[in-house]
Design a protein that fits this description.
single chain, about 250 residues, alpha/beta, Nucleotidyltransferase, domain 5, 7 helices, about 30% helix, globular
Length: about 250
């Protein structure tokens, strides 16, 4: 089994994934308000119970390494390392950037000629974003590949883009409104597809349930992380043997 954790931002997911069947067995999705310390391990326990598994069934651990909140990134990496130490057999560990997990589902599905831009809210009206190349299913953006700035900067960058763009990830209502006049931009926010309003309160017990109905192209970052981790493992990617290191776009505070 593969256990994927993405608690790098306020939209958190824990996924139990069966690599052999390429199937999500259980998934926890919730909005956190900087309470990942208290919420993550209970969410892991609930996902395992929901999927009919125990911790020692897990042979692969995947985690998002940033960018995101400094606290969320550190907690995700620490929880994965702690779980690994407690397992009877040492698991495979893989850490991947948040935006690669965001884009993983959509790069192969984007319309011909369209680019996929992955985006993450960075707080106070700011965003992190990066453009995923259409021909790289193992895309791992380095810190230098990320852009960061207020919503106005993201809108300006999209306005200057001459090709169709699928903008996927965490999209605020204000950003959606600012993008309404850009006909070449298609907005896809998986959190909206999971019916999690922006003011959703932290609820560790929330679950959309395995096999829940989803609209269109929705997929949580946790599921994207799980599928991308398997791509890297099967390809023997260097990411599979790299130490888990946080990806920060500015120094931790």
């Amino acid at each position: 089994m593969l256990l994927a954790l993405d608690v790098a931002s306020s939209t958190c997911t824990v996924v139990l994934f069966d690599p052999g069947r390429e199937t999500v067995l259980a998934e926890k999705v919730w909005r956190s308000r900087r309470r990942q310390t208290e919420e993550t391990l209970p969410a892991v326990a609930e996902a395992l119970a929901q999927g009919g598994a125990v911790m020692d069934d897990v042979g692969i651990l995947a985690v998002t390494t940033g960018p995101g909140s400094f606290t969320g990134v550190r907690i995700g990496i620490s929880v994965v390392k702690g779980i690994a130490l407690g397992l009877q057999e040492a698991p495979r560990l893989i850490g991947l950037p948040v935006l690669s997990a965001v884009a993983a589902r959509f790069v192969p599905l984007a319309a011909p000629g369209a680019d996929v831009w992955a985006v993450l809210q960075a707080g106070r009206g700011r965003f992190n974003w990066a453009a995923a190349p259409a021909d790289d299913p193992l895309w791992l953006p380095a810190a230098a590949d990320h852009c960061a700035g207020p919503g106005e900067a993201l809108v300006a960058a999209l306005r200057a883009e001459g090709r169709p763009v699928w903008l996927v990830g965490e999209l605020s209502s204000a950003l959606r409104q600012d993008l309404q006049g850009l006909a070449h931009v298609r907005c896809i926010d998986p959190a909206v597809e999971f019916d999690l309003p922006e003011n959703y309160k932290s609820t560790p017990g929330f679950s959309n349930g395995a096999g829940a109905e989803r609209a269109g192209l929705s997929e949580s970052r946790g599921e994207g992380l799980a599928r991308l981790a398997m791509r890297h493992l099967r390809a023997g990617s260097p990411a599979c043997s790299a130490p888990l290191q946080p990806l920060y776009l500015r120094p931790p505070q």
